[in-house]
Protein 1
Amino acid sequence: MKEILSGNEAIARGAYEAGCLVASAYPGTPSTEILENVINYKEINASWAPNEKVALEVAIGASFGGARALSCMKHVGVNVAADPLFTASYTGVKGGLVLIAADDPEMHSSQNEQDSRNYAKFAKVPMLEPADSAECKEFTKLAFELSEQFDTPVMLRSCTRISHGKSVVELGERVTGLPTPKLVKDAPKLVMLPGNARVRHPLVEERTLKLSDYGSSAAINRMELHSSEIGVICAGVTYQYVREALPDASVLKLGMVWPLPHALIREFAAKVKQLFVVEELDPFIEDQVKAMGIACQGKELTTLCGELSPGRIQAAFAKAGIIKVAASEVIAAEPVPPRPPNMCPGCPHRGVFYQLNRANAYVTGDIGCYTLGFMPPLNAMDTCVCMGASISMGSGMVRALPPEEQKRVVAVIGDSTFLHTGINSLMEMAWNKAPATVIILDNRITAMTGRQENPASGFTLAGEETSEVNIPELCRVLGIKHVRVVDPYDLDATRLAIEEEMNRPEPSVIITNRPCCLIKGAGRFEKGKILEVDQGKCTGCKACLRIGCPAIEWKPNPDGNKGKAFIDPQLCTGCTVCQQLCKFNAIGGRK
Amino acid sequence: MDTTITNILLVGVGGQGILLASEILSEAFMLAGFDVKKSEIHGMSQRGGSVVSHVRFGKEVFSPVVPEGQGDILFGFELLETYRYLSLLKPGATVVANDYKIAPPSILLGQAVYPQALPEKIKAKFPDFLLVDGQGLALKAGDVRAANTVMLGAVSKRLQIADGVWQQALEKMVPKKALEINLKAFEFGRGL
């Protein structure tokens, strides 16, 4: 049966067909939907982990127990999971172990565009790279087989255009007859004390050589011979771009990007007059081809930054005089007002950032919807580096500052990010007595990636009720003496809490307690009374516009007099934050 | 071999249901026997930001992304977004746009104004332009939320795909309880 699947849906399907039994992940764009689809296959035990390191360790444990196991994350998640990854490379596996890393060239939804292929080389594990959804499914299955055949974790690299692109996939059946998981003592392989690890490392190096040989004859690496003038080595979505941009070129399409198939590359290079490597981000393949002593061109033509596309590749080859492209008529783009992302109407974060701005706080921020607190008119975020860094960076910053500036430092972090890697940071801050203020924006969900459950939300990925981390108590046991919970829809209470804790020369935590306005059911978000602006009372002072709510629109007066504010009843959730800002009582419940 | 590929771009504002519309389109092309690819960006841009979905079909499709300046049909869910992405089209392309406005932040804050006379400006560049009262016709069909389906109906007339295939795609992709209204909305759009 044929279906149109996204790359992420196809990876989930591939894991199912491969007989995968355990899957663990932390949500992160563009990888999130893999696990959200795996959970639809009842044969697989799938769950969210608090972070990527834990997710990979869950999968490693399942593999050591004899099951085929999957872990998924976005590219920066692999940084968090790097510790177990590098040593799992030495131990190898029992059941097949596959790690999906989803890169985000162009940074559509990420803080950097690191190239995950470097991790495969660095950790010395093979990496497959599919070029469409059909390959996502097939390569995921193959990854499990290679993992067991070569006794290694296998990485599969996706990217935004593959994970969130859809194409046609032929569905298959789930494999049967895999060994039943059971406990097997195998300390020389699984206990990585120095004496054992020294034995394992040479096996890892031999494995890489064997995998390179495998790659030279494997069907996933293939030559498509057309003209002998131009030969292009490429992989993943870039293969699709190359086929479209350079239809006459011969192509060596790599399905395995580490280790490279040296024999096959030499064979291909000998068949073409001019050899090129076209790849997004780093010159990963190019550097290795050059190190083999084979002349080729790569980053001389294409950029190190951002995505490629058929047009960009064509333009680069035309500019270098390698191909000729007929000039086409172009419709000029005209400047129009931009439409950046914004916090939703009724978002509980909005009032907090409004008050942080007014309090002249210096906000060390973190990763989540609330990073949008950076946008005007809130303008209340001053740093954003990586998951969990808000607290530890605030803690470090106060140590460097003169006393009068110390109190301005406020770290802002969401519930899911706090549980991901913020707990260690808060422990450090309490332990070392750093007098910064921390605000945990607890909206009871991992909102930015599409509302996934987390350890404090009370539900599992499967929607079952479960234990719930008590965040205020957790802060107290970490050593924070001053922990207070505030309603972020109450602007005065929020302002008071922020001012008092900023002035306190000790570590303190404020926790906000309103759920994300997109989570319905289970007693979570409830709409309030929809508000409207009394046009007779509105003086056009624009105070309500300072929160940047998408439900409030400024309508200029055509007569040239002052305009007035309007509230869109379709968008308003009745959070009342704008109402509290109106000094003229012009905002009230809709009649 | 016929290497013709039809490139469709769906543009609008995050939250308008663009992804579902592009899924229904893709499903119809697959059912009609074509190779199909589609691509869009999820994540941050969904928070009320500008959204573009690419759908391509033909005998064999390589890139999931429509090459710059190669769009054949622009399917606009919001006027300003329709205007923003005209440069993705080839000259002579078709534009079908919903007559619907959502103000972006700078306009909400009174720092910019919504550009005037956008339909006329679009028509001047792309004579094959259809402005659809998506919301109005959807309301007539029974639910304002079916506006996207009205638009889909309007676009469908410009694609050489059998009636039955569209019905099949809608039946597969639209929840059962909303199907009747959506089939009606589709017919209203197709009748334009």
Protein 2
Amino acid sequence: MANAISPPKVLTGRRRVSPAQRRQNLYGYLFLTPWLIGFFGLFVGPGLYSFFLSFTKYDVISSPVFIATRNYVDMFTKDDLFWSSLSRTAYYAIVSVPLTVLGSMFLAILLNTQLRGITVFRTLFFMPSLVPIVASIILFKILLNSDFGLVNTALRGLGMQDPPGWFADSRWSIPSLILVRLWGSLGGTQMIIFLAGLQGIPTELYDAASIDGAGSWHRIRHVTIPLLTPTIFFNTVLGVIGALQTFAAAFIATEGGPNFSTWFFALHIWKQAFDYFNMGYAAALAWFFALVIVALTLLQMRLSKRMVFYMGE
Amino acid sequence: MALNNNTSSIRQRRYVGRIVTYVLLTIAGLFFAIPLLWTISSSLQTWQELRSYVPHFIPETPQWNNYVQVFTLVPFARWMVNSLTIVLINIPGTILTATLTAYAFARFNFVGKNVWFVLLLSTMMIPAIVTFIPQYLLFFNLKFIDTYIPLTLGSWLGGSAFMVFLLRQFIMTIPRELDEAAIVDGANPVRILFSIIMPLMKPALVTVAILQFLADWNDFFGPFIYINTMLKYTAAVGLRTFQTMALEITDPRDHLLMAGAAIMTIPVLALFAVAQRYFVSGVVMSGLKL
């Protein structure tokens, strides 16, 4: 890896580029062209344009009107749904990300044994992650129906007088979304990433730990988990980015309700942009949101330097 | 004697450990399996049966007609074809352009390479919603709304950063000696890519094709925003529409929605059945050493 991105051999002193280097540049940029067009046309350009729009009032029909930082001021001071949607999104991420990361790690550890029938379990665990999000939300809305859903029928059968209202109850709507997320992702890609990580742990380390008298819990605690920290880190970073952007699940399940209880930040941006056509304001919200996500990601990378253990370093 | 005791206790502990593992695996298995089985079961019930006081896991008489109704009440077949169309446009796009990008990063030492690579990876971090609004405005001004262009253009312009990264990692495992031998034979880099590198990339390209299929088949937000005409909907947006649209007959329609959810999931499961190993190989291939 280090070898592949070693610095280009440019003769800096004399400002002359060797023919070989010229060839590298020519072909490098030739093959890069489609991506460069996409990067500037669909990413940088639109990103900058949305940054410009965030300082304007723009309803698509008439041209943008420059209003300086008013959108940014308004979002912090006048928008009732701004802070609440932000904290709701944070609540969803803070609960769902650790549960999915630790849960899928736990399942991977269970599966990383040479027991008979293990492939059947692995396939079964993976299957829900293949169900499209729209399908899984529709399935869980019916499973979790407060009156005749399978879950509440079972809970009543077990003697619970007043089972939760799930999606219909504003206290339970986010936990319901988390439940769908757990079902659809515990056995999915994250678990596979953990399994790959587990298979990379040399067996000698376990043998050494066993000789030192470590039981299975100690082996997990002192060998497996430290060696999985890069995987935990990777899954957490991607998990946070994904969870913060949740749109489809909340929209299809409850359209942000009941009583705004699943009104996540992505829904708020969507509503402002594509329902109210407050494009300028929505762009400001989106930029603010991007900064939050980038800051959180960088923060996690910072923390990881202290907490992640890379083998062979 | 002491040694014997010791080994038998180890064996005993191992036995207990195995039972505990199986119990935990079974609990997790039920958590995953019951909703899947319930989808099939409830999609074959009448709505009255679905709401009966004691749930029926085996439908009294399987209502195969539910599946027929999904196709007759709404243009579900059309929606599936639309999703498939997008998939079939995007797969060759990603395979071609993500490979070109990956090839550039894996094999050439051009000026500015590190900067571009970091920029490529950082696009994974920026939430889609930030670029979505101006992209929408761009496509709106180009009169591309209600066409599949917004949903397919990106895959012809490099595809997603993750796929480029994955392919780059794969190309880097192909020995450079092969390239060098071809150069000696007078092949240029374009030829090397298409006649040496790409044939060797087959497993990676199948993985990318599957990832692209899953992404398009699942995508809700894109078609939801860009497509207005009902006949142009994808299966994901169509199923959502079926959930909420006003229909004179069939309320409640939970049983039909379950049939729709099952229909939409079947192609994914079918693909998984035939290409199982490629679903997981992307993860392993990328090596995950960012």
